[in-house]
Amino acid sequence: MTKKLLSINDLSILLPTGADRQYAVQDIDLELNAGETVCVVGESGSGKSLTARAVMGLLPAPHVRVGKGEIIFGGEDLTKVTYERLRELRGSEISMIFQEPMTALNPVMTIGDQIDEIFRYHVSMSPRERAEKALSLLVDVNLPDPEKIIDAYPHELSGGQRQRSMIAMALALGPKILIADEPTTALDVTTQAQILELINDMQKRLDTGVLFITHDFGVVADIADRVIVMQHGKIVETGTTEQVLQSPKHPYTKSLIAAIPRLKPRKARSRAVEVVLKTEGVYKSFGGGKSLFGFGKPNREVKAVQNVQIELRRGETLGVVGESGSGKSTLARCVIRLIDSDEGQIKLGDIDITKLSRKELRPYRKRIQMVFQDPFASLNPRIRVGDIISQGPILQGEDKEDASKRAYELLDIVGLDRRSFDRFPHEFSGGQRQRIGIARALSLKPDILVADEPVSALDVSIQAQILELLDDIRERMDLSMLFITHDLRVAAQVCDYVAVMQYGKIVEMGPTAKLFKDPKDAYTKSLLAAVPGKDWHFGKLKP
Question: Cβ distance 484 to 329 under 8 Å?
Answer without folding.
Answer: yes
